[in-house]
Design brief:
Blueprint (H helix, E strand, L loop, with lengths): L7 E7 L2 E7 L9 E10 L2 E9 L8 H7 L3 H19 L3 H8 L7
């Protein structure tokens, strides 16, 4: 697992979910960020763990999409590792993660 601790720019964890944001510069995506988060669905239940980045979130930026299109697999791998890191920090085990990922991302 990658060492995300040194590139974390924001972190908020609670029993109601939360998230982590990292700087992707040292991973080859200068000036871009990635975030992983988990929403509270209500009734004490947490939703699935989601991930997003500043590259794919700008789908209307054709230049940016073309520049990084051949590296989306790398972003997916970083995102999956970041999800596991987040789950680890939240105190979840592998069974918890599997259960969460079957849930909705949001309550509405």
């Amino acid at each position: 697992m990658k060492d995300f601790e040194n590139i974390t720019t924001r972190e908020k964890l609670s029993h109601r979910g939360g998230g982590i944001e990292i700087d992707l510069t040292s991973l080859g995506f200068k000036g871009h960020r990635m975030a992983v988060y988990q929403n509270h669905l209500g009734g004490g239940m947490l939703g699935s763990i989601q991930v997003n980045d500043t590259i794919r979130s700008q789908v209307s930026n054709v230049r940016l999409q073309l520049e990084f299109s051949n590296r989306f697999k790398d972003l997916d791998e970083i995102g999956n590792e970041l999800k596991l890191y987040f789950a680890f920090l939240m105190g979840f085990d592998s069974e918890d993660i599997s259960e969460f990922q079957r849930r909705s991302a949001r309550a509405y």
